[in-house]
Write a structure and sequence with these properties.
119 residues; alpha/beta; 3 helices; globular
Length: 119
């Protein structure tokens, strides 16, 4: 399986980090190569404290790192639009999961594809 999956996290730096509820306001992201050839990458979200544009900034960061899929509990409208425009597939992941659990569900095909919202 090719591509890179990003998961917003609130604590931890590896596969045991917990999913953050918000994409744009997440402290960081763990990016996993889906073929398993590279160790997970930890990206600090520099825009987490931005007054506005945090979602767009997060989306740009992920797309710059070659992310092809994002799993999150919630996508803000601007982040969703930017990620879709960049060609990333979006998935809804239940809160409280670890990155490892999200990855397991992604590989098993049990994560729900995030429905396009009209804003």
């Amino acid at each position: 399986m090719n591509g890179r999956l990003a998961v917003p996290v609130r604590d931890g730096v590896g596969l045991q980090a917990r999913l953050d509820r918000q994409l744009g306001r997440a402290a960081a992201f763990v990016v996993v190569d889906l073929d398993g050839s590279v160790e997970p990458v930890y990206l600090i979200n520099e825009g987490v404290q931005a007054e506005q544009g945090a979602g767009i900034g997060a989306a740009a960061l992920l797309l710059q790192h070659g992310v092809t899929a994002v799993a999150a509990e919630h996508f803000g409208p601007k982040a969703e639009q930017a990620l879709r425009a960049g060609g990333a597939a979006l998935y809804t992941a239940p809160g409280g999961l670890t990155v490892a659990e999200v990855l397991e569900r992604f590989r098993a095909g049990t994560l729900v594809r995030h429905e396009l919202k009209v804003y």
